[in-house]
Amino acid sequence: MQDTPNTPTNNSNESLEKADENAVSPAPTFHDETNNAEASSIDTIPSTEELLRQAELASAEHHDAWLRAKAETENVRRRALEDIARAGKFAVEKFATELLAVKDSLEAALSNENQTAENLKAGVELTLKQLAAAFDKSNLAEISPLGEKFDPHKHQAISQAEAEGEPNQVLSVLQKGYALHDRVIRPALVIVSKAK
Questions:
Q1: How far apart are CA 143 and CA 35, in angstroms?
Q2: Contact by Cβ (8 Å): 174, 191
Q3: Residue 45 and which of 5, 61, 99, 126 are 20 to 30 A apart at CA?
Q4: Pairing between β-strand 188-194 and β-strand 155-162 as defined by DSSP bridges
Q5: What is the pLDDT of residue 41?
């Protein structure tokens, strides 16, 4: 019997040859990809020395920022102390300016030698008004408690006298007191009533 091209043995040989031709493609190389993966992982994870260098740089930046903040705080504190000292030193500047007009008036009154008693009295009254205006502008209030109840926070009793009516009433004011913004800077010297 003679072989024909369509016999099963021929078909299997041809299919093997075609399979061999298709199998000639190069096999994938996994070794190169593994090296690439190792190289990329080395690039992404920094070395210990690099981490230390970065930490030292960050530490230096934070230390510099801390030093700047500390210096700024010291400057603010120093300026505040200077402002407080300046405020204490020149606190009476406004009041002193008001008193200059009073001094000028007193000097003018004394410089005129041909004054009458009435002119001198009128000048003193005007000077007293200037002084009272200066006190008002500076919130310096007069304490004159005649007829009021004795208040040890505002008054200083010099003596007691028997009197009709309720005890502990101010009978007489020997010297007026003064308060600056509701703080007593000089208590009024008074005589207080006592029960009979």
A1: 98
A2: yes
A3: 61
A4: parallel
A5: 53
